[in-house]
TrEMBL record:
SUPFAM superfamilies: S-adenosyl-L-methionine-dependent methyltransferases (SSF53335). It comes from Rubrobacter xylanophilus. Pfam families: Methyltransf_11. It comes from the Bacteria. GO terms for molecular function: S-adenosylmethionine-dependent methyltransferase activity. Residues 62-161 form the Methyltransferase type domain. This is Methyltransferase type 11 domain-containing protein.
Amino acid sequence: MRKRTLIPAALLAAAFLYTLRARRHPAACPYRYRLAVSLPRPLLTRNRLRRTLSPSPGERILEVGPGTGYYALHTARWISPGGTLHVLDLQQKMIDHTTRRAAAKNIHNITPTRGDAQSLPYPDHSFDAAYLVATLGEIPDQDRALRELHRVLKPGGRLVVGELLPDPHMVPLRTLLSRAEAAGLRYEGRLGPRTGYYARFVPPEND
C-alpha cells in the first residue's frame, strides 16, 4: 500500500520540478515534439481564435510560433481573398512543415520567416493583427516580445494571446495583463476560463 501511495507522489513531484525548470529556462518546443503541438486544443479552439481575432479578407496578419500550422492554415483562409498571413518561428523545421502543409492544401497566402519574437524583422505598423498561442511563455524576454508586437501593429490593430494549462510555460492571465500594460497595450477582454483563454489587446488610440 505504501508503494502505491509513493508512486503518484513521485509523479507529482517530477511534474512540479519539470514545470519549475521550464519556467526558469523558457525555450521553444523542439520539432521532435511536433505531434504534441498538432493535437486538438479543447479550450483554445480555432473557432474561439477567430472570434477573438476578428480577421477579415484582405488583412495582413502575423502569427508568432505557428508550429506545424494548427491555426495558420485556417487563418490564411479567413483572410482570403487578398490577405496575407506572415508566420514567424525560431525553428526552420517548423516553418518548413507549415509551408508544406499549406502547399498540399493549395493555400498560397502564407509568407514564412525564420526569426525571433524578441526582435521582429518587420517595419513599424506592418500588421492589422497578430496572435500567438501557447508561445509567449517560451520566449525568454516576454516584455520585449510584447513591445515588439505593439510596434508592428497598425493603429487600431489587434493582438491576441492564447494560453492553456497544463502547458508548463503557461502565462497566467494576471501576469499577462501586467506585462501587456507595461508594453503599452490596452486590454479589451478575454474568451474562455483562466485555465485556457484568449486575451485581446489593442494599441492605445494615440499610437
